[in-house]
Every structure is written in structure tokens, then in C-alpha cells.
Amino acid sequence: MQRAETLAATSVAVAITVLGLKTVAWWMTDSVALFADALESVVNVAAACAALVAIRYASMPADANHPYGHHKAEYFSAVLEGALILVAAFIILNEAWLSWNNPRTPELPLAAVAVAVLATALNAGWSWVLFRRGRALQSPALVADARHLLADVVTSTGAIAGLTLAMATGMLWLDPLLAAVTAVNILFSGVRLMRESVGGLMDEAMPPETMTRIREVLARAAEGAIEAHDIRARRAGRIAFVEFHLVVPGAMPVEDAHVICDRIEAALRAELGEATITIHVEPEGKAKHRGVVVL
């Protein structure tokens, strides 16, 4: 979890740097698209701070009030980040509408374009790092931050393109139009992020492909048992929770059944990473003849 905290803290520094660069670019051009882009970076700073706080809280060990740990805290951060994306999109739409009704001629010094491109490149590079490391660490907060930054990259690219086209063609309405188009794009990104994060808070089942892998592990690792049924699995942050009933021969000693359970737990952790596994052992009379038949 220390690695996740380091990444989150770096995200705060990157967000502040990008905000400074975008503010300079807007000040040099007076472009509504770049102004909206800078406003979104204010949201990025707040979102990065929220992700850092959530990751630190999620790393706290289980206690009497939270016996299953604090892992879901990262989902709250991701929901907040999705909401902030929506706020940023509506702010951009409002600014685009005002500029559409009152068009103004922006300036386009080469230095401003260079600053805007640098800010966009920094966001793009860091979003790639967060996607890769966030998925590896199974951190919803880091993945949410990566998606937020990717939405910002789209917004920035649209803002730069809109300003460039407006100045090249003299069609000033292109500046607010492309700002509005990019706002709609990040609206969809925010809605998707919130849906996925709420799914985590609601203990949504793991994806079908993951459940298939779990069943395959049970079929291989439960040698000596008869079947496994009532299999359920969910994820809370980086922790997987798996539970099921394991049917064994009625005459099997408890020690032998325990050895099978240990072998299954080791195999599931090798497949899923950090996991809390609950196995209810039953005699063969409880077999339901469905679920996973042990090979």
C-alpha cells in the first residue's frame, strides 16, 4: 500500500504543476477553451488530494468497528472523482455557452501553445503510469485518477485544436464548440466511473471471467473433495473476498479436510492476489450436484 500512497502523492504534485501550466496558457491566449481546461485542472487537484486521503485510510488495518478492513474507502474516492468530472464538464459547458453568445478573439502565441502541449503531455504520461500501476496494485482510487486524467487529456487536446482552428480559419465559434464537445465526452467518462465505483460499494459480483478462473482453480486444487457449490466472490479495493461450500466424504478426518482447504486457499491467492477466503465444509450428504465438480 506504500507504493499506492507514493503514486497518489505524486499525482497531487503533477496536478498542481499541470494547473499552473494551463493557467499560464489561458492567461497568454484568453481562450474560453483553455480557460475551461484550466478549471478542470482545479478539479484534478481536488480529486488527487481525495485519492491520497482515501488510499491512506484504506491502508489502515482492521479494527473492532471495521473487522473487514477499510478497503472500500477507495471506492468513495472514485465516486467523488466521478462526481468532480461531471462538475468540471458542466462548468466547461457553461463557459462554452457564454463564449458562443459573446465570441471574442483569442490570441495564439507560440509559447502558449507550447505550454498547453507540455501540460497535456504531462497528464497523458502520468495517466498511463497510473493506469498500469493502479491495475497492478488493484487500487480503485488510482485507476479512477488515471481515468480522470485521461478525460483531461481529451479536453486539453480539444481545447488546443479548437483554438488553433479558430485562429487559422477566423471562425471564432470553433473555440467554444470544441470546448462543448470535449465536455460531453468527459461527461460519459464521469458517469462510467461513478457506475463502476458504486458497483464496488454495493458488493457487485466479480466479472464472469474472474468467476470462471475461480471455478477452474477449485476444480484443480480441491483434490480429495467431491464438489464446491454456492460460490460467491466480490472485491473491495485490492482485497478479494471468496466464499463457498466444499463437500467432502463423510468419513474424511477433519485434518485431511483442513489440508484440502489450505491447498485451495493457497491456489486462490496465487490467482487473485490478497484475498479473504471462507470455506464451509460439508459431508457428502449435502452435495447439491451443481457448482464445481472436483476433478
From TrEMBL:
It comes from Roseococcus suduntuyensis. GO terms for cellular component: plasma membrane. The lineage of its organism: Bacteria, Pseudomonadati, Pseudomonadota, Alphaproteobacteria, Acetobacterales. It is found in: Cell membrane. Signal peptide: none annotated. Residues 207-284 form the Cation efflux protein cytoplasmic domain. This is Protein p34. GO terms for molecular function: cadmium ion transmembrane transporter activity; ferrous iron transmembrane transporter activity; zinc efflux antiporter activity. GO terms for biological process: intracellular zinc ion homeostasis. Keywords: Cell membrane, Membrane, Transmembrane, Transmembrane helix, Transport. The chain crosses the membrane at residues 7-28, 34-55, 75-98, 110-129, 149-171, 177-194. PANTHER family: MITOCHONDRIAL METAL TRANSPORTER 1-RELATED (PTHR43840). Residues 11-202 form the Cation efflux protein transmembrane domain. It comes from the Bacteria. It is a multi-pass membrane protein.
